[in-house]
User: Fold these one by one.
Assistant:
Number 1:
Amino acid sequence: MEVRQLEGGDLVAVMGLATELLGSERAGPFVRSHVERHHLLVAEADTQVIGFLAFRTDWFQCTFVTAVAVRKDFRRRGAARALYRAVESMSPSPRLFSSTEETNSTSIRMHTALGFAPSGHIDNLPQGYRELLFYKRVAP
Ligand SMILES: CC(C)(COP(=O)(O)OP(=O)(O)OC[C@H]1O[C@@H](n2cnc3c(N)ncnc32)[C@H](O)[C@@H]1OP(=O)(O)O)[C@@H](O)C(=O)NCCC(=O)NCCS
């Protein structure tokens, strides 16, 4: 498995994953804004894009993972772990944040397994659930 920056040919696969995660209305603008900033990493296996991780570096002067998704048929093979390792190695800040809905037990388990600690939550979002924040200190 390889993790690398998104290339033009990856867009269809990434849009598919983003649409599943965010819905068709939000996926386009979301992907576009991260592509413009070169803040979109993909995991590739067997010459196919099997996952992506999007992030931003302007969130309270910290790095924030805005979305991560792995194709259903490639889960539990370390793709998310590899994507987080990659963003950790390129983060301009030693403060890495990530988040998930309080109902997403798989993602909560993943964050714990990857060494994140709980770091508060956000209420009053349109999604109707509390968004849990996670924090990890990474080597600068
Ligand atoms: C959450 C998600 C990104 C994890 O991707 P993944 O590639 O399967 O994760 P990894 O294989 O790297 O797992 C890393 C660790 O997280 C934990 N983990 C991941 N999936 C888990 C599950 N279903 N149940 C329990 N623990 C899990 C494990 O500790 C795992 O390590 P291990 O396999 O050595 O035990 C994937 O399930 C997904 O795309 N879900 C839908 C989108 C989503 O919810 N994104 C997060 C919110 S934006």
Number 2:
Amino acid sequence: MKKNIPFFSLQRQYENMKEKLNLVIKDVLESQKFIGGNFVESFEKKFSCYTKTTHAISCNSGTNALWLALKALDIKQNDIVLTTPFSFISSSSEIVSLGAHPVFVDIDTKTFNIDIAKIETWIEKNTLYKENRLIEKRTGHPISGIIPVDIFGQCADYKKIKLIAEKYNLWIIQDSCQSIGAVDSQGKKAGTQANISCFSFYPTKNLGAFGDGGCCTTNNQFLAEKIIQLRNHGRKTHYNYTMYGINSRLDGIQAAVLNEKLNFIDDWNDKRRSIAKIYNEKLSNIDFIQIPESNNGKHVFHQYCINIKSNCLQRDEFIYQLNKMGIGTNIYYPKALTQIEFLNKDKRLKNNCPIAQNLTQTILALPIWPELKNEEVEYVCSCIKKVAKKFKIKQTGIKKETIIRL
Ligand SMILES: Cc1ncc(COP(=O)(O)O)c(C=O)c1O
């Protein structure tokens, strides 16, 4: 029987939590603590406990968290930041917003995270070391840091990234917007691996607010104080402005909602992992599908993305067939960041990233949200198998085949 499986839905989660959430929102309304105050403070405390960091500074979004982190680390005009081309735009747009340049380093073919060997190769080929700074040869611009993104909920390889950062005196900002609760292959929790880590609480994230929200975590007191100031107009005390800052505060209602939802994040992540396990088991023997590969850490599957490695079944056709059977899908990402004009203004810094660019043509995200029932996940798998059968796909790309419609 045809089922309707939306790509994402919060309806069931809300139904399960409605009474409690309505109560905590009512508490905020009655206390009138809309900005700052005990709801925000207690969320920050709980979040720093959860991430095992000494400071959690909430703000208005993941995008703002990245901006605040870059500003706190004192990024300068024309600085270069090494980062991944396979991400949501914010991990690069915030670099550009501060007059600096993202240089894109291609991704690993299995995890889709930034490829560490390619960072090393790029540094060896394109830089020289002068007065304790790494300088890009053609432009003379300094490289100041690295922004890895924990794509789809899996931590990047921080052990190796840290070695590079230490060797060349670079900072690291972790874009952990998709990886709350994830653990890297060294057993370290997302949020602890960098000078500053950045989280998003956009409603569809593993921990989602009822609006926008974000957070920076750090173990560095100086950086924490700077972020606190930067998110609040640059002021130290009420009318004592000592630097440029923005208004980026998490509000009381979002903080109260997140505080309540944080109690469930590990269960929700476990459920996502168990859904991913079903997908892995059921889809691994379909020739044209590359299932996600995990490193030794704990992947929290913000997205479960398959790679359709067939040149006889186009992704659009695949999406169409699944839609006909009631299944929603999505594409992350339809473009690599190397393909977005305003992020790549200085042509001397252009670095080809064919793996990321090709992946944008074949990647497809399947439904993965904690309230999905196992039989619904199995339905998705059986529909995928039906499509595979319908198109009689045997080979994994490369060889041209004719489509046989049954
Ligand atoms: C990897 C990544 N970085 C940054 C962001 C930006 O977060 P926000 O939407 O809260 O600004 C997102 C969220 O979409 C993201 O997925």
